[in-house]
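Q: Here's a chain of 205 amino acids. Please give me its 3D structure as tokens.
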Amino acid sequence: MNKLILIIDDDRDLRASMKLGLEKAGFAVITADSAEAGRDIMARIRPNAVVLDRMMGGADGLTLLGEIRRVGDATPVIMLTAMDGTENTIDGLSIGANDYMSKPFSMRELVLRIGNITSKTVRAPDTRKMPAGLAEENGEFYVHGNLLPLSIQEKSALSEMLTGAVTDAQAMTVKRLREKLSLANLAGFDIIAVRGRGYKIVIKN
């Protein structure tokens, strides 16, 4: 099966050019024209690597990269930018980019760099502690084997809390998440408020 690459870039022509070049190199490719669209795709599928533009309309690439790293997503990311220089490179790498390329770049170089990070990067094992009956597969959550219908925001909040982190998700998102978990008859956990910070999940023994 060909490795799947997600391109997130708001430049239509560059996006199309990268897609064509990567497909010729043997990759399967999907594209998104914004960080928001890329976030939605990554909530549903797991690409082998992401080619992420730094500067886009709406949320920028650094914001999206920070979000996916906070929820424990270790998908390899190459960040693209017209902003060269050491400090800009450090910004991307410090947030969690695996590689950094300045525009313009050659397609051959992009292909080689994608091959490099997808061959060397091994996904970290899932160390999250799950309540009994809860499972996650391919970006979807299941309770006792049944799909749990969660919104993008609810999935993100649940994923973040399962790592042991405190989520700053909106109160309404957490309220709906609690209700759905309760209706699915999932026990052995509680979602509690952490004053001034947000919410966290507590797994009961």
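Q: Can you summarize the key feature?
A: The longest strand covers residues 189-194.
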